[in-house]
Write a structure and sequence with these properties.
By secondary structure, the protein is of the alpha/beta class. About 30% of the residues lie in helices and about 25% in strands. The chain contains 14 helices and 18 strands. The termini are far apart.
């Protein structure tokens, strides 16, 4: 028999969005304000404001804000100054990591009530600075160090410089996926635009989305002055929008604490299982660019542990920073094309703070699960590096479990081409990186005769044109010692 003192439940969720034009910049609320607003909204959603003073842990998803201990600042504002504060690094998986950590600590009887929050005021901050001012919320009054979790290992910055940002990396995954599907460039671009138009339609009905306009596929597909190309085939409409003023809060407690607060059962949503794992930290070492063993393993274990399958899931939210990761996770889950893949609209249209997209996913999912049916939330961090799946139910599980599946992930790392190496290669995938003036260069993943992977670039206009017309996957070429690609 379950002990209700150690059964974790989500009892309230809150979402806050401060859209352009809704408030004057002088009146804009900062990230701590927005997260506090979300916490108050979560308590109101639960119908038990008294729970906030009983919070024993505040988990904050990392962001661009520079507060030493944002959880401590929030704890003071909600009347729980003794709450333990946890702060993560920036990663797309961290809100679900924090829900898992909070649920685990409740299940172990360490705390009764927990709060998981995330938020930014990036849009307002940038505009205040452009106007020559400083955000009034820049003063950091925290004086203690939080518990820190979820950092990436050191040594990844060199590869990040190769990509110049996440869009190029995910565009390489996309091109390899296109080749696997045997799609020509134009056909695949049509497919991506149609996929993203569906996400836009969901965002248009999401009251907490940053962009609530439904965008047609043709508008998403084509590059225009308002929708410039970022990394071919990704236009601005196809990439994550993190320049937002948004926040979320997820309020959790034990079933006993919920009952003591007078909450009805129909407000309770139960985390059943949360799994996590990761790919090779370096993208160059991955066996495939269009597949992810951590995805398939984390999904399989989540279903096994909860005794469910994808056919049992009523509501799905796949992490949607770029189309390639949606397609990779859908494939790992065995999802057919006719299923709805988001409850928010994704990062391009719903928008989200840089580390808190899944905070919005979980908040939206709780509202869906309360109406009935299981919900599944996928979280992704890094360059399709960290993976997490959470299954949520309106019925309590036999026991909540948080599972690190890494021991079961079969990574099979690939060898890499040394710096300065020159020789014959075959193109594995390619994209064209853009700046605001137009195409900058071709970035290609290339394989040598031994199957080792490396990166190569070209500024040849003919290569740029070929990537965007027919593609160059499978073409032979040479990589020079300085990394230049010659076809």
């Amino acid at each position: 028999m379950q002990n209700d003192a150690t059964v974790p439940a989500i009892v309230g969720v809150g979402q806050v969005v401060q859209r352009p034009g809704e408030v004057a910049l002088d009146d804009a609320r900062g990230p701590i304000d927005l997260m506090v607003d979300a916490a108050l909204a979560a308590a109101a959603d639960a119908g038990a404001g008294s729970l906030l003073s009983k919070v024993g842990m505040i988990g904050v998803a990392g962001g661009w804000f520079t507060f030493r201990n944002p959880g401590q600042l929030i704890a003071r504002r909600i009347g729980a100054p003794a709450a333990r504060s946890v702060l993560t690094s920036i990663s797309g998986t961290t809100p679900q990591d924090l829900v898992g950590l909070a649920s685990e600590r409740i299940a172990r009887g360490e705390i009764d009530v927990a709060l998981v929050v995330g938020g930014e005021a990036r849009w307002s901050e940038q505009r205040i600075k452009r106007a020559g001012g400083q955000p009034p919320w820049a003063v950091d009054e925290s004086d203690e160090d939080p518990e820190l979790i979820s950092s990436f290992p050191a040594g990844l910055s060199s590869e990040g410089k190769v990509f110049g940002g996440a869009p190029a990396a995910y565009a390489l995954f996309e091109d390899r996926h296109r080749h696997t599907l045997d799609h020509d460039v134009d056909t695949h671009r049509d497919r991506l635009a149609a996929l993203w138009a569906g996400f836009s339609a969901v965002a248009s009905s999401n009251p907490y989305a940053w962009d609530r306009q439904a965008h047609p596929a043709a508008e998403i597909r084509e590059a225009t002055p308002d929708n410039r190309m970022i990394a071919f085939p990704y236009t601005k409409a196809m990439v994550a929008n993190n320049t937002v003023d948004m926040a979320t809060a997820v309020l959790l407690c034990s079933v006993d604490a919920a009952r003591a607060a007078g909450l009805s059962n129909d407000r309770l949503v139960f985390p059943s299982v949360i799994t996590n794992g990761h790919e090779t930290w370096m993208v160059a070492e991955r066996r495939r660019l269009d597949g992810a063993p951590a995805l398939t393993t984390a999904a399989r274990v989540a279903f096994e542990r909860s005794a469910t399958s994808i056919d049992d899931i009523a509501h799905i939210d796949l992490y949607a920073c770029f189309p390639s990761i949606v397609q990779m996770s859908a494939s790992a889950l065995g999802i057919h094309d006719d299923r709805a893949l988001t409850v928010t609209g994704g990062l391009g249209f719903a928008g989200a703070p840089v580390g808190n997209a899944v905070g919005h996913s979980i908040a939206a999912m709780v509202e869906r699960v309360r109406t009935g049916g299981l919900g599944l939330v996928h979280a992704n961090g890094g360059m399709a590096t960290k993976q997490s799946f959470g299954i949520y139910s309106d019925q309590p599980p036999d026991a909540f479990t948080r599972i690190d599946v890494q021991d079961e992930v079969e990574l099979d790392p690939r060898g890499t081409i040394p710096e300065g190496w020159a020789g014959a290669v075959v193109v594995e995938a390619a994209t064209v990186a853009y700046d605001r003036d137009g195409p900058s260069h071709v970035l290609a993943a290339v394989l040598d005769d031994d199957g080792r992977r490396g990166w190569a670039t070209s500024r040849d206009p003919a290569h740029v044109a070929t990537v965007e017309s027919t593609g160059i996957v499978g073409l032979p070429g040479r990589r020079a010692g300085d990394g230049e690609l010659r076809l």
